[in-house]
Design a protein that fits this description.
The protein is about 50% helix and about 15% strand. The protein has about 260 residues and is an alpha/beta fold. It is globular. Bound molecules: uridine-5'-diphosphate (UDP). Uridine-5'-diphosphate binds near residues 180 and 205.
């Protein structure tokens, strides 16, 4: 595949771009996101993918560096019922929620077929190894993923780059929590191709069986956040952003001026 493919995907993606409270999010399905990532890898491109939930979006509004980073990423996926609801309130096209957990599962399947190498970085010691074993159990053809714990800040970059150079991954899943994982990808994968870097938050914890995922019916009605709050009450501090997000999204849908950042 040529650079024409890359340009074609970017032009198509630009058309799917929505602005939710001023932050860039693509209205794209899970299947198309996986197809684009496959096309980028096949054409030896690099890309950073962010799974945008309301907490990330609110963070991007108040942190100019993070907001600017989200302008430069190739794909910002709608991860969060609130993001999809906010888009639909304004009749913007947003076909479905695309979560990190689902995306990683699809990409592991893709990697098993095409021989892409995975690097799982971050999370508590042992978690990435367990997550890698789970992905291999699901997709027996998968090349055993490389793993590292590392550190999320710039003081961990030398180690990260050494591991990346040694393992030469195609897909890097960074689990350092937002926004650290997005900055980590931006710093450490900037000049590498073909590499797709994705911040995956708690996905490795789910894969490793350390935290259960909310039951499907709760996810369907947009209450995954409530389940996570019940299991991990310390999340309340982060979730304080959610009522403000809902209020602003409604104001935006009503056409009221809310200030872009
Ligand atoms: N984490 C880490 N180093 C850090 C901060 C977080 O490895 O300095 C890991 C943490 O162990 C977890 C992931 O980053 O595996 C972030 O998960 P969280 O539940 O915060 O992300 P969310 O799914 O809410 O985006």
């Amino acid at each position: 595949m040529s650079s024409a493919t890359i340009n074609a995907t970017d032009i198509h993606l630009a058309k799917l771009e929505a602005r939710i409270l001023g932050v860039r999010v693509h209205g794209i399905s899970r299947a198309l996101a996986v197809a684009w990532i496959d096309a980028w890898l096949a054409s030896r491109a690099r890309a950073q993918v962010v799974t945008v939930n309301p907490e990330i979006l609110m963070r991007a509004r108040r942190d100019p560096d993070y907001g600017e980073l989200l302008e430069r990423t190739r794909l910002n996926l709608p991860d969060g019922a609130g993001i999809v609801a906010a888009a639909r309130l304004r009749r913007l096209s947003m076909p479905e929620r695309v979560t990190g957990v689902d995306l990683v599962d699809d990409l592991a399947g893709l990697a098993a077929v095409h021989g892409y190498r995975l690097l799982l970085a971050g999370a508590a010691p042992g978690v990435a190894d367990q997550a890698a074993a789970e992905l291999q159990r699901r997709y027996p053809g998968l090349i055993p993923p490389a793993t590292m714990v590392g550190r999320s800040g710039p003081d961990g970059d030398a180690e990260a780059q050494a591991v990346i150079q040694e393992t030469r991954p195609h897909i890097v899943l960074a689990a350092y929590g937002a926004p650290a994982q997005e900055f980590w990808i931006d710093r450490n994968l900037r000049d590498l191709a073909p590499v797709v870097g994705i911040g995956v938050g708690g996905t490795l914890d789910y894969l490793a069986g350390r935290i259960p995922r909310a039951p499907a019916p709760l996810r369907r009605i947009g209450l995954e956040w409530a389940y996570r709050l019940a299991r991990q009450p310390w999340r309340w501090r982060r979730m304080r952003a959610l009522p403000a997000f809902a209020r602003l999204a409604i104001l935006e849908a009503l056409g009221l001026k809310i200030g872009v950042r």
